[in-house]
Records
---
Amino acid sequence: MTTKQFDVVVIGGGPGGYIAAIRAAQLGMNVACVDEWKNAQGGDALGGTCTNVGCIPSKALLQSSEHFDHAGHHFADHGISLDNLKIDIAKMVARKDAVVKQNNEGVRYLFKKNKVSFFHGRGSFVAAKDGGYELKAGDETIIAKQVILATGSNARQLPGAEFDEELILSNDGALRIPAVPAKLGVIGSGVIGLEMGSVWRRLGSEVTILEAMPAFLAAADESVAKEAAKVFKKQGLDIQLSVKISKVTKGKKDVTIAYTDAKGAEQTLVVDKLIVSIGRVPNTIGLNPEAVGLKLDERGAIVVDDECKTNLPGVWAIGDVVRGPMLAHKAEEEGVAVAERMAGQHGHVNFNTIPWVIYTSPEISWVGKTEQQLKAEGVAYKAGQFPFLANGRARALGDTTGFVKFLADAKTDEILGVHIIGPFASELISEAVVAMEFKASAEDIARICHAHPSLSEATKEAALAVDKRTLNF
């Protein structure tokens, strides 16, 4: 039996992996992708963590819970009355699963369209061979001239509170809770903790978030973080900072968390479910890097240079398994760039213009530098801010929470950072990304005509505010 040979084999079918495979195929290479994700029936489930237990299903649940929250608290403002409001959790989860399946099938279709061969199973190195690499692809052995590693990341476990996905949950279990828990605990106030806490808070859970850091949303601009903390508290999220977890004890039907609070007092919290979201770790489980001498760093991430090349000739790595932010869209950009570099082109990824988004309500997004970073770096800057309270479209939506904030160089007016908290922040941030990629000034955005009435006018007004000349506030 002849061993199948490919120009490129991608290990991992998540956003970075499947996009890299498609782009390499578009550029004329003979490409295969190996991925081991399984659906409930044991079949393949292309799309990686993002599609199966991350970005896509969490947004589906966020949307469902937001509809429920609006029906219970905001429809009356529009003259819409509902009696006996209730939610069918099983149906909500089934809809989420259907959305995931649609995305799984979408990737499979794209592979077929672009003639990418797919192997369902774990991908791993066997040996270097004939200027390329021998790999295991599930039950088969294949040969690759070049390899792209896109194996993603796994949820970090808290020692003494290992995941059972029944009472102590990772992002996976948090997406499959069968009924609304009366009390929900969340360890970690990052993106996953806030989004999942928001879902179940809207549906009726009493949610307590325990965070070890003294600052809330330390990665975000301080003014955005302060606004978010105020809004989330008003919504009912109990966020406690500077917490030190002493012990987590799992009972038959609940979980007890012993911890020290910010004042040094011993506290005990008993919850029906506990979500642990304390970050993610690079996934190289079963990759067998030792077989070929692939270099990993102290965190277990694959070591790469600025072009995503590893220490091995013809082996590249992208996404969560390498340095940089663990974001699906960052992995996609690296995947495209690597495929183009393989083809002799000049793939490009600008880490300074990668947007960040938290899909809470209000949404939070940003790109570029925060005000505290500019201060620490000694950069002279100007700031401009505009509230959604003064935006006509936001008023019509009934959601005037938050603001848009611009940071621009004090001398050149080049945009250095844009920070948004408010309705559809995830969509509004794209204008700022484009502007920064082309090194636009705040004046450039201020001079561009924005449709009226639209939320994007808040972006224009914030740019005007840099020069202290807003028109509507």
Note: The chain is about 30% helix and 25% strand.
---
Amino acid sequence: MPEQPRTAAIVVNPVKVDEPALREALAAAEQRWGWNETIWLETTEDDPGAGQTKEALERGADVVIAAGGDGTVRTVAEALRGSDVPIALLPSGTGNLLARNLNLTLDDVENALDSAFDGGDRSIDMGVVELRDGDGPTRRHAYLVMAGVGIDARMIAATDDDLKARHGWLAYVKAIGTVLRDKNQLRVRYQLDKTGVHSARAHTVLIGNCGSLPANILLLPDAAVDDGEFDIVVLRPEGFIGWLQIVVKIFWENGVLRRTTVGRRFMGADREVRAMNYLKGREFVMRLSRAEEVELDGDLFGRASALRTWVDPSSLTVKVPRED
């Protein structure tokens, strides 16, 4: 008995895509691979993708394509977490964080749709986080790449949206300058994998499911999207020397030396610098002395004074290019 044609759904952020061009590319891919007409679902200000993904599942979609920025991808993935339906990525945003960490081709719609309709399946981990501010209600979310408290969240809050739309991730450079003038540090108490409680003063705490950022920045060099663990970095620079240590570690050691065999030999034994501490684990609990902004995959999720996050291993299937 011949195989029944399959059906994809696409969750589209209409601000991020060229609709006529995308519809034309979809029709060509459907014909190329023998799929039914794709279910077209657009995000709105009130619903950035969760309801549309639920509708796609109810209508029996065999794959859900996320066409938008990191926020659209995160929202669609959250709705698909734990299901048998894979997500396919059509990167259309500023960061394209998950696509970068999976080494997927950017700015190539035809290649992305070929992966959606005829690609292989890759299981990856997701992070789940519970946020609470004081005695307020607990909010639960899922994320794919990174959760952050401190400078990175304040940087996102300070970023000019119009500048970001015109110049992409370079808009963050101006925001960094604004945020670095803020001398406020985080006072945190944290627990990793239910072991002892630690206290620290820090500028930023980042919990990563994967570690590569735009501009080829390798923040968490040992992070892997499917290893069942988080890689965590606590940034605690003290003055100019501390920031210099962080810059050298991230941009020179992680960004240049670590990428080649010769460079790794030059680095010698792996060493931490005083200004940043790396941790690794499956569950991370943190309390802050005051409520701070929290970011997930580059989007703000309000303020929290307490955070608990854990890895949900192999909970999402992603379509990737099929190996020859």
Note: Residues 239-254 form the longest helix (16 residues).
---
Amino acid sequence: MLKRFFLLCSGADIPLLNECSHGEQNKYVGIGATVFFTAVMAAIAASYALYTVFDQVLIAVFFGLVWGLLIFNLDRFIVSTMRKKESFKSEFLQALPRLILALIIAMVISKPLELKIFDKEIQQVLLEEKNEMTLNNQQQIAQQFTPQRTALQTEIERLKEEITAKETEVNNLYETYISEAEGRKGTKKVGKGPVYKEKRAKHDQALADLAALKKENQAKIATKEAAVLQLQQQEKNSVTNSQPIIDNFGGFMARINALNKLPWLPSFFIFLLFLAIETAPIFAKLISAKSEYDLKYQNREDILKNWILQQEHQRSVLLATDTELNNKVYRDLQEEEAIYQQKQQMARKLIQAQTDSFLQNHQKVL
């Protein structure tokens, strides 16, 4: 049962192969087993690849089986359509498109399995990329809010500097009128004279202005500090909302790129392994001599080809003979007077009928 299944997978003519030796049958059993297990590996690889994309087991398994069947059909077609030729060069040229197709299939099959084999290393590369993306994202978002925040901070500093400048002015006026009262500066007369009162009035006015300025600027500062806090919260929310996108970074293409950043030699050997598996049936037929099955298959094709050529030749001869006989018959009929008279009479009746019809149509019009 298993042997017949693998023979079916090989694409060989089973009734013809049953007439061959057991060694010949075992060779095609091996070819069929290679085709079958290559399709199984393709189904597993495709299922894993699709699982990383859709994250759904049933969907991944279903389309993985479809892909495995497609690869099975292609491999079976490649092996079953190869025929042994008289020279290796002609056989290789015949197999070259199939080898290219096998190369593509091997690449498609091996890549998802490489992703699974090097999953831990890929996760490390993805983690580093996510960290880098997180830092870049924070910097980009910060750059969006920096101009507004800087403008607010500058305005707050300006308001604070106005208060500081006014306080310095008030302190200077205080020192002025105190010095005048003590006689250290100004008129240098001790006591609270008119000059003292004038300077004291300037100080009191500046002090009142300072109180008003403080009240006004502190209200503005509180508003702008609230705006800064709001910008900081918006920046934090932007970082929080964009972080899930970075956390979910790790799809099929991202994993492929991460795999390409790893040392290429292990992946290359895995690819060579699948390439060897995929091309094994083709090379087995290329390097092997004409076997019993090939000779019998070619003999049957030659018999069918000769029979078809005979049929075509017989049809061409029959057509030529029939054409010659028909030509001779019509040449003989041309010389018979009775047939000529009959044709002439029929033509006369036809012309008369056409004339009568033409006349009747014109009479109706008139």
Note: The CA atoms of residues 71 and 105 lie 8 Å apart.
---
Amino acid sequence: MMRVIGLDVGTKTIGVALSDAFGWTAQGLPTIKREEEQTQSDYESIAHLIKEHDVQKVVIGYPKNMNGTVGESGQRSEAFAETLKTYSNVETILWDERLTTAAAQRVLVDADVSRKKRKKVVDQMAAVLILQGYLDRQAHS
């Protein structure tokens, strides 16, 4: 039994999802609002969640360009993962997240969630999709 946390790291918010104890399903946790100069508090918030939920792995969305190259967003995710390791001694995994935000938007539109509410939960939904993709891959390997 192992809990995994999934993160959709954006410039303004961090979407967060947590697996169940069996590593089968991902549920959204409250999104972390980022303050421009308070990056340390982002890492501390995540380290707190890792400790609170006894998490063994962190899966971080890794945005790549459609041709597979790594752009600025991907480099930010790489740097975020590296720094997070200094705050918490758990394995961090970069997970290809191409299309997850678009997929999250589509799920919410299909569920008839209002535009205002979508804006509030899209990061959380993206984190859930990132983590669920990882969990599904683990289950089938």
Note: The longest strand covers residues 26-33.
